[in-house]
Specification:
mainly beta, 3-stranded antiparallel beta sheet, 1 helix, 3 strands, globular, glycosidase, beta-galactosidase, hydrolase
């Protein structure tokens, strides 16, 4: 029998004028666990506006994988 796997997350409300994202992780575009080879781990910078893509499921936009550091300004 397989054990249940647990997921957790958090919601953080930031000031509306926070626009810049700098992070160390896979990127520079949206990344998922099955797309890691094509997205090297490095220090990436982008804006919140540039990271938005109008996907059908809006919760999928801006996904970052294996992020070890993030700075929001």
């Amino acid at each position: 029998m397989l054990q249940a796997s647990y997921r957790f997350g958090s919601v953080i409300t930031l000031p509306l004028d926070y626009e810049d994202i700098t992070y160390y992780g896979n990127g520079p575009y949206d990344t998922y666990c099955d797309r890691l080879r094509g997205s090297p781990a490095a220090l990436h910078s982008q804006t919140v506006t540039d990271s938005f893509v109008p996907y059908l499921n809006p919760q999928d936009t801006g996904n970052k994988t294996r992020v070890r550091y993030i700075l929001l300004t």
